[in-house]
UniProtKB/TrEMBL annotation:
Keywords: Membrane, Repeat, TPR repeat, Transmembrane, Transmembrane helix. One of its GO terms (biological process) is photosystem I assembly. The keyword Membrane applies. GO terms for cellular component: chloroplast thylakoid membrane. Pfam families: TPR_1, TPR_8. The chain crosses the membrane at residues 30-50, 70-92. This is Uncharacterized protein. PROSITE patterns: TPR, TPR_REGION. TPR repeats lie at residues 157-190, 191-224. The keyword Transmembrane applies.
Length: 252
């Protein structure tokens, strides 16, 4: 009986020992799982923190980009508004000038119809018609002003200049040249008439005469912004027609 009891006790001891080992193993597994779970949570938390930090770094760059694009859009808008403003200004200015010319023409025409118009008023009416591009009417009133002129010959040169321009713009260049020649004959220092004469000669391809006219203008006004570049261009044309190749053409 004693032997049986020892055997039983031995089996119990073995069973208890196995149970203890199982318990310790289970505890270790629980600890390992806890450590793994803690590590996973720490890793997840670190990942979220890193992502948040990266977003914070990228967010200011994104905001700067948005501000830059907004600035470009505002610049284009301001430029467009500026162009519209300039265009509107010129349109309004043209309308006002046209209205002023119409009123002036109406008043002067009434004086002409009444027969009380002086040579100066006829000249003014011809000049208004010239600006309005009514060339036949301008020619008519300017010729009447010349026929009726009783003032200073120096002022008469302005009438001949206006008449010459009217003829040239109306396609009657030869007649225009004749009137412009008279204008510079009456007033040799009339730079505007010399420039108009040079332009008229160039239209009919008489480049030598045109060159001479612009050179005459520069004699009285060396820094004239119209005559100087036209003179230089005509020098090259005259040399080419003579068969002489200019230095600039050689370099090209």
């Amino acid at each position: 009986m004693r032997c049986v009891s020892l055997a039983v006790n031995g089996r119990r001891t073995i069973q208890e020992s196995a149970s203890g080992k199982d318990a310790r193993n289970s505890k270790k597994d629980l600890i390992s799982m806890a450590v793994f779970s803690s590590g996973s949570m720490s890793l997840l938390t670190w990942s979220n923190s890193a992502a948040a930090s990266e977003y914070e770094k990228m967010n200011p760059v994104y905001e700067v980009g948005e501000l830059f694009e907004l600035g470009i859009q505002l610049s284009y808008l301001l430029l467009l508004l500026g162009l519209l403003g300039v265009g509107t200004f010129f349109v309004i200015r043209q309308v006002l000038v046209r209205r002023e010319l119409d009123l002036s023409a109406k008043e002067l025409q009434e004086q002409v119809r009444s027969g009380d118009a002086s040579a100066t008023e006829l000249f003014e009416l011809g000049a208004v018609m010239l600006r309005r591009k009514f060339y036949p009417a301008a020619t008519k009133y300017l010729n009447q002003a010349i026929d009726k002129w009783d003032g200073d010959d120096q002022d008469l040169a302005q009438v001949y200049n206006a008449l010459g321009v009217s003829y040239v713009r109306d396609g009657k260049t030869e007649k225009g040249i004749s009137q412009l020649e008279t204008a510079v004959k009456i007033q040799p220092g009339y730079v505007t008439a010399w420039n108009n004469l040079g332009d008229a000669y160039e239209k009919i391809k008489e480049y030598k005469s045109a060159l001479k006219a612009f050179e005459e203008a520069l004699l009285f006004d060396p820094n004239n912004k119209i005559a100087r570049p036209r003179r230089d261009q005509l020098k090259e044309k005259v040399q080419l027609y003579k068969g002489v190749v200019p230095l600039k053409s050689k370099q090209r």
